[in-house]
Amino acid sequence: MNTEILKVKNLKTYFAINKSSGKKQYVRAVDGVSFSIKEGEIMGLVGESGSGKSTIAYTIMGMYRPTEGEIIFNFNGKSIVTKSNKRSLEFKKNVQIVFQDPGSSLNPYHDVRQILSLPLRVHKIVPKDKIEEKIAEILEMVELPASFMYKTPTSIGGGEKQLVSIARALCSNPKFIILDEPTSSLDVSIQAKIINMLLKIHREQKLTYLFITHDLSLMRNISTKVAIMYLGKICEIAPTEIFYKSPLHPYTQMLLSSIPVISEEEEALKPKKVVSTGEIPSPVNVPKGCSFHTRCIQCMDICRTEDPVIHQVSEDHFVRCHLYKS
Amino acid sequence: MKNNISANENTADIKKKSFLSDNTREKLRIYWYKFSRNKFSILGLCIVLISIFLAVFAPVIAPYPQHVKEFVDYDKAGLPPCASYIFGTDVFGRDIFTRVIFSFRGALLMSVIVLAIAVPVGVLLGLIAGYYSGTWIDVIIMRITDVFLALPPMILALAIAAVLKPNLTSSMIAVTVMWWPWYTRLVYGMATSLSKEYFVKNAELIGASKPYILFHEILPNCLSPIFTKMALDVGWVILIGAALSFVGLGEQPPTPAFGQMISDGARYMPDLWWMTIFPALAIAFIILGFNFFGDGIRDMLDRGR
Question: Which residue ranges form the domains of chain A, and what is each CATH number?
Answer without folding.
Answer: 4-248 (3.40.50.300)
